[in-house]
Every structure is written in C-alpha cells, then in structure tokens.
Amino acid sequence: MKKVLIVCLCIFMTFGYTAISQAEQYPTYDIEPQFSDAGNFNEGLAMVAVGGEWRLKLWYVLEGAKFGFIDRSGKFVVEPQYDWAVSFVEGMAKVEKDEKMGFIDRTGKEIVKPEYDVVLDFSEGLAGVEQGGKWGFVDKTGNEIVAPKYEEITSVQNGVAKVMRNGKWGLIDKTGKEIVAPQYEGISDFNEGMAAVYKDGKWGFVDSAGKEVVKPQYAEVVGAQFTEMNYFDEGLAAVKNGGSTSFIDKTGKVVLKTRYEYARDFSDGLAWVFKGGKVGFIDRTGKEVVKPQYNNGNSFRDGMAAVSKNGKWGYIDRTGKIVVDLQYDQAFDFYYGVARVTKDEQVGLIGKTGKIIVKPEYNEVWPSSEGVAMVQQGTKRGFVDMNDGTVIAAPRYDFANQFAEGLAAVEKDEKWGFIDKTGKEIVSLQYDYVRDFKNGVAVVEKDGKKGLISNPLDQPAEWAKSEVNQAIALNLVPMDLRHHYTSNMTRADFSKLIVHMIAVKTGASIEELLDERGKAMDADAFTDTTDETILASYALGLISGKGNGIFDPDGLITRQEAAVLLSRAADLLGIQRNNGTGANYADKDDIANWAQDAVAFVSSVVDRTNGATMMGSTGNNEFSPNGEYTKQQAFITVKRLFHSN
C-alpha cells in the first residue's frame, strides 16, 4: 500500500516553472507545495516527506510520514522510504528506519545501515554513533573506526574529537587512537590549536597533537568561561592564580605578569583589565594605554570599545580617546560597521564616528551582514538601511526575519512573503509560512503542504545571462550548481562541472569514462573529501591535490587553476590544440610556470558559435592568474570549450 501511495504522488506531482511575462519576472512556484515536510537544498538535494500527520507532543512531530530526497528539478533521487531524514552534510545524510539510524550517500546508497540508536552528522570524515548507551565513530565507507565504547563524545574538529570514559575526558585522532587518555574533568574547545583542560581543580592546556603543553596549574583560564573560546587569538592567553592575572604564550611561558585583579584576552592588540572597581586597557608590554577609570566596558572590537562612567556609555578608540561622548544608557559592540545604542529605553544605531545612523526611536534594532537592519516598533517590524538610516520598510509587518540572500521573509495578517532591499514585495504575501532563502531556495507552506521556490534575485549578471542560459540549455551545468551565479567557484564545484561537461560531450557516464581509460577511483586519494565526482576527476588526471592528501574542496579556484583543468579536459576530449601561443598578457610574469601552457591554450581557443575566446583578459590586458573565478564565468568557459573548434 505504501508503494502505491508513493507512485501516485510522483504521478500527480506538478513541477512549476510557470510561464511568466518578462515584466513579471518572478515565478510563483518552482516545486509546488505538495509535501508534508521539506528542507532547504543542501549539497544539491532537499529532504522531503510524504504522508503522515503532524501531532503535538512535547513539540510537533510528523508521524507516519516517509522521507526521501529530491534534486532541484523536483525529481526523487531517494524515494520516500525512511521514517526520518535530515539534510546532507559532507555528502552523507542521517536517516532512520524502524527506530534505528544510519547514513545514505547522495545516490541513496546506505553507506551505514540503520542499526544505531543515535548518529551525529559527519565532521571531517567521521560521524559519532551511539548504540546501547555507548558512543563510537564510523567513516564514510561505513567502517567502525571506533567501536561504541565511550560514555560521551563530540564531533571531530581540527582532526581530534573529545571522548569520555569513566567520567573523564580525553582526545582521539581521526584514526581512533587515543592521543590523550581520558583523565580530565573537562576539556574546552580548541582555539588556535590549543584547548584548555581541567584536572583536580586546576587549568592547563593541550595542543591538537595531544601534548600537555601547560600542566594544570592555574585557578582560571579566562577565555574558557566564554561560549566562543578566544584564548590565544592574538598569541597569548589570560590565566589567573591568586589575586592577579598573567598572560602565557603557547609554550606555557609567562610573558606578561600584571597587577590587575582581573583581565581578559587580547583583542585588537589591547586587553581589558580591572582594578579597584575600574576598567582600563593595556598593550602587550603591559603598558596602560587606558588607565582604569571606567565603571564598566567591553573589549575592543573593530578598533572601538564601549565604556561607561556615571551610568552613561560611549566609545573610545585604541589610543583611549573618547570618540563617542558618554551619553547613552547602554552601548554595544560594533558589528558590520555599526553599534546598537539605547537612550530612554529606545534603540538606535551609530557609526564609528559617533554619527547617528538610526535615531534611538525603536524598541529593538538588529544589524545584519547584508547592510540592512531589522527594527521593531511596538509589535510591528520593518527595515532600515545601515548606511544612512533610510527607512526601507516602515514597521508594518507582524513578524519578519533578517535578510538572507538579498530577501527578507515578512508576515502580515498570517500570510508570508518576501521583500527586497528597496522594500518591494518581490514574493507576494500568500504563504502560510516560509523559511529563509538558503542556497538559492526557500521552503514555503500553503494549505498544510510544503514546496520550494527559487530566489527570484538569484540570476546571472546581464552580460552573462545569454551564454549561461545556453550552457544550461545544453545541460552542461549540473542542477545543483544552478544558483549563486555571481559567487566564486570552489575547487570541488569546478571539478564536478568539468566531469559533467565531459560526460555530456561524450555521451558516456563517469563509470564508462573510467572504464574506457582503464582508470579506477581511489577512495583514499584525499583525506578531506570522498566525493566520487572529485575522485573520478582525479582518476582521469583532470585535477591534483595540494599535497599530503589535501584537496581543499571548499577552497576557491583561481583563474590559472581553472585554465589548467580546462586544458586537461580538452586533451581528454581530443580537442586539437592550435599552434598559437595565446595572448601576450601584461601580467604574464605572474602566471605560474605550471599554468603557462594552459593559459596560452584557453586564451587562443575560440567558441565556434560566437567567436569568443574561452578565457580572455580581465581588463587592461591582464589575465589575473590568481584572481577570482565566478560560477557564471565557469559556466561560460565550459560552454565555450564544448563549442570549440
């Protein structure tokens, strides 16, 4: 009966891409609301659920549904068959069946059979698994690197994981070896290659190799008290014994003894200090740049520190000069070039010169990385420009989220939509609920069903649209790369793009390409990726790593690196090289020796459909070998190689 239900759903599924006028521009749906639940696209796939019923227990739970995954066209890559699933992380997704959990890869293959009670997301190639109250680790082949034997664990970070046995914490490396036997009552997170450890009432430090660099001897490690560890951010860590604070380096040497009752770690080259009920600041030599004189204050951030005296707050610079008069009831750190300040219980924003950008007239203001601040007045929310305080949308919405990918989700009269940074409602308020845009897509809900819409602003630049659209029409661009066109291309994504283009050009699958050339993928080629497309690209001789088993999949590819991959792809396809030497670029001396032939090739090969060179100058007759290489540029150059003579 379940199989019939799934088939029927697939048959009646409607995938929008509705025809619209040029003036309208924006699609109503990409994948029409039809699912019981859905997640944002991550690593090219989105979790969806069919059937079931939402029920309120301790929280709302979707019972009786089946979970699977779709690609950006709406096609099921993994048919709904699991009792629960979540988004992909490092090429693997957690799934549950019959109250047991495991992992599948992006093809739907069960790499780790659902046999564990609980599993954690993969991190640096390993995932924590729990069985019978004990924890261990599995790798991406499904092998148990560490059989479940620990009471608690953390995910791998910087090559190590924290593990607990008999109530004591230790460290293991990625092979499962205990590099620090469980012996500490506590281990803080690593920061700058060091972690604070606690034993017998004293604090010390271990490094990421497991060496106890500083034996537990201090009553306090200041940075260990904060959620975000900041010890050694600037090479030193604040430690405390008795009534004064000292600073040690990564060898444990005390490089600065102070006479202050308390001090915090260095930030922006200065450390916050406290003595006799007053706050001041010192430099790395211990010199008092700002004598303790303030009743309260924050550490420096972006060259400014909020300080208070007699109940009023303002800001000083790194010389101690007051740059914003002490006039506010409260002042907060600078983020994104602005700081929140309050006066008479109202909130506003100021710039670093003290200029008021947004008058303190709102109940709350939330700055964001997108240059727009959300404001609240009474129960209504709106938005203001963080550069000049211009009101983008007056507080008229019942609820709103911060801007994400150029759009903000807003709600009024129980209907949700999206506005742009001019305040225009780009997606009309028509949904019962929406989630923020992520990776170019947002989940929307209507009449109890969820679907997904693409970000209408996520388009190639005008100059690139024609050729990008041609590349997509030729199926040269994998579906999961068709977003964030103006962002920079990663090494992993360009590898996938090249292999996909070769498969389309030859009409052969990746497996067939490897078989024809007598090649095989090596699962151990890299330590930081097991992506089969990348491994295939490596086996075909298209890519190489950075040494020591590192590929750096998330690193950005440079123009000269892209030229090399394009040149190798042309060789694999048997595209004949001409005798030209390519353009004589003004920055030719900046082109690496290993890339010079490839740059000459890509700057001489021409697209027969439009006469455009595969890769040309970035301006002023420069190739910019180490410059940025955007996704839209990558799509165009692949299309030009596809059409080359």
The share of residues in extended strands comes to 35-45%
Radius of gyration: 28 Å
Residues in helices, as a percent range: 10-25%
Structural class: mainly beta
The largest sheet, given as strand count, sense and whether it forms a barrel, is: 4 strands, antiparallel
How many DSSP H or I helices?
Answer: 8
Question: How many DSSP E strands?
Answer: 50
For the terminal residues, how far apart are their CA atoms?
55 Å
Arrangement of strands in the largest sheet? 1-50-49-48
Mean pLDDT: 91
Shape: globular
Low-pLDDT residue intervals, each spanning 5 or more residues: 1-28
In short:
By secondary structure, the chain is mainly beta. Helix content is 14%, strand content 39%.
Structure characterization notes:
The chain has 645 residues and is mostly beta strands. 14% of the residues lie in helices and 39% in strands. The strands form 13 sheets. It has a 4-stranded antiparallel beta sheet, with no helix packed on it. Helix 2 crosses helix 8, helix 3 runs parallel beside helix 6 and helix 6 (559-573) packs across helix 7 (596-602). The chain is globular, with a radius of gyration of 28 Å. The two termini are 55 Å apart.
Helices and strands in order:
Blueprint: H1 2-12, E1 31-35, E2 37-38, E3 46-50, E4 53-56, E5 60-63, E6 66-70, E7 76-82, E8 84-85, E9 92-97, E10 100-105, E11 110-116, E12 118-119, E13 126-131, E14 134-139, E15 144-150, E16 152-153, E17 160-165, E18 168-173, E19 178-184, E20 186-187, E21 194-199, E22 202-207, E23 212-218, E24 220-221, E25 237-241, E26 244-248, E27 254-257, E28 262-263, E29 271-275, E30 278-282, E31 288-294, E32 296-297, E33 304-309, E34 312-317, E35 322-328, E36 330-335, E37 338-343, E38 346-350, E39 356-362, E40 364-366, E41 372-377, E42 380-385, E43 391-397, E44 399-400, E45 408-412, E46 415-419, E47 425-431, E48 433-434, E49 441-446, E50 449-454, H2 462-473, H3 491-506, H4 510-516, H5 532-539, H6 559-573, H7 596-602, H8 631-642
Antiparallel strand pairs: 1-50, 2-3, 3-6, 4-5, 6-7, 8-9, 9-10, 10-11, 12-13, 13-14, 14-15, 16-17, 17-18, 18-19, 20-21, 21-22, 22-23, 24-25, 25-26, 26-27, 28-29, 29-30, 30-31, 32-33, 33-34, 34-35, 36-37, 37-38, 38-39, 40-41, 41-42, 42-43, 44-45, 45-46, 46-47, 48-49, 49-50
Helix pairs in contact: 2-8, 3-5, 3-6, 3-8, 6-7
